[in-house]
Design brief:
about 450 residues, 4 domains, rod-shaped, Helix Hairpins, Beta-Lactamase, five-stranded mixed beta sheet
């Protein structure tokens, strides 16, 4: 307001000076004019004076409006919630609002003529230069996300939206809007991580559902087989008993070296058929474990001793490394665990060659479980067959029901453990059985098949 009064005073002085100069040049004939003419001239002067006053009022109004526009510009530009910068073609900051200065962590006055690249994260420099080049070449608006480094070294994610414009001198410049998008970037990362986690959970649950479906199908087959097996087994066992009795009578009546080998074949066939019947009955009447405290070391010794390699006509090397089981109590069903050991050991015995066969039995004890490895140097199992090894009635043997491993798997699973097979064609076979020392709590996922953290321990 003081400046405005000073301007008005200076204007009046200039007007009075001009009036004096004009008055000194009044022609002589003005003195001879009539009063009417002078009155008319005064009227004209007054009209001009009023016009000037009206124009002056309009100028003052325009000036006030201009001040209002300036204040509004200050609010919209300087106090905007996002940063605004004007950048030259050389990449120098020509102008910036307060928000831009705050985002960059620099006093507004010190931003002039600073290169904008100075505040761009080193690894993102190429992104900035590529978009700047594209902007000035095509005049097409550019939008991109880069990391900005403040003066104190703090890094944040920013979105830059750039357009081409002309400054007051007609020079081409770049107008940039700068926004802090760090929060949204963090949210995106959380969503991406959650999406990945959710996808993994869905995949795991899908696998579990497929396993449950497979188990249901096996259970239905078991039920159907059980009804048939119980009837057939009784009839077959009666017949086998008759054959065995006849062979015993023949052996007692006739002592002939020509007949003895044939009787031994009969005994072997009866034993194999009996095992098949036992598997059928065991499979069809699988019951929950009747747990008691077992000495696994003694049970394994009993099962390995029952292999009778001489009777099978094979000369094998049986090595045992099971001393770690001594004194380790395990809660399990002795009949069922014996069935598992016998099945696996008999499979190994069938697989190894007649001469040079090797069966290795090892045991390891962990804090919560025990692990039994039974390995042979047989021909191994093809990859395609390995996937079906636990399926009911699947077998690669000339004789057999294909129920042995199925029974083993069911028993071990009922004990809260799991059983795996590692094999390859020509590489032998290793069966790994893992069972907990104590009965696992209901709903405990530790011993689900394939999910235990110990499943890869050798």
């Amino acid at each position: 307001m003081i400046d405005q009064n000073k301007n008005n005073s200076d204007l009046r002085k200039r007007a009075e000076k001009m009036d004096r100069e004009k008055t000194s040049r009044i022609p002589e004939d003005m003195k001879n004019r009539s009063s009417e003419e002078i009155q008319e001239m005064l009227h004209e002067l007054r009209v001009h004076q009023i016009e000037l006053e009206m124009q002056n009022d309009e100028l003052r109004t325009s000036q006030m409006e201009l001040e209002t526009v300036k204040a509004r510009y200050f609010d919209l530009y300087d106090l905007a919630p996002v940063g605004y910068c004007t950048i030259s073609e050389k990449g120098l900051i020509m102008e910036a609002n307060l928000s831009a200065a705050t985002l960059l962590g620099v006093a507004r006055g010190s931003l002039a003529n600073q290169p904008i690249s100075k505040f761009i994260f080193k690894e993102d420099q190429d992104i900035y230069y590529l978009h700047r080049k594209k902007l000035f070449e095509t005049s097409s608006p550019q939008a991109y996300e880069i990391r900005i480094v403040k003066m104190d070294g703090t890094v944040f994610w920013a979105r830059l939206e750039a357009t081409v414009a002309q400054d007051a001198a007609g020079v081409t410049v770049c107008r940039v809007m700068l926004s802090d998008i760090t929060a949204s970037k963090k949210a995106e990362e959380i969503l991406r991580r959650d999406k990945k986690t959710l996808g993994k959970m869905v995949k795991e649950r899908s696998i579990e559902l497929m396993e449950i479906q497979a188990e249901l199908e096996r259970a239905k087959r078991l039920y159907d087989i059980g009804i048939l097996a119980a009837t057939v087994a009784r009839e077959l066992r009666n017949s086998l008993f008759g054959i065995s009795l006849a062979a015993t009578v023949i052996r007692s009546k006739i002592a002939d070296s020509m007949i003895d080998p044939q009787l031994q074949v009969i005994d072997k066939m009866i034993a194999e058929s009996g095992q098949i019947i036992d598997n059928l009955l065991f499979y069809s009447h699988l019951r929950p474990p009747q747990r008691e405290t077992l000495n696994l070391h003694s049970l394994l010794e009993e099962c390995t001793g029952a292999l009778q390699p001489v009777r099978s006509g094979k000369k094998i090397v049986l090595s045992k490394h099971i001393d770690s089981l001594k004194g380790v109590p395990v809660s399990a069903d002795p009949d069922q665990i014996r069935e598992v050991f016998s099945n696996i050991l008999n499979n190994s015995l069938d697989a190894v060659p007649d001469h040079g066969g090797q069966i290795d039995v090892r045991a390891r004890v962990y804090r919560e479980l025990v692990k039994i490895h039974i390995t042979d140097n047989g021909p191994g199992i093809a990859k395609a067959d390995l996937k079906k090894a636990f399926d009911p009635f699947f077998t690669t043997k000339e004789r057999g029901t294909g129920l042995g491993l199925t029974v083993c798997r069911q028993i071990v699973k009922m004990h809260g453990g799991f059983i795996n097979i590692k094999s390859g064609k020509g590489k032998g076979t290793s069966v790994i059985m893992t069972i907990p020392k104590t009965e696992p709590k209901r709903g405990n996922d530790l011993f689900k098949i394939g999910t235990s953290p110990y499943s890869n321990i050798l």
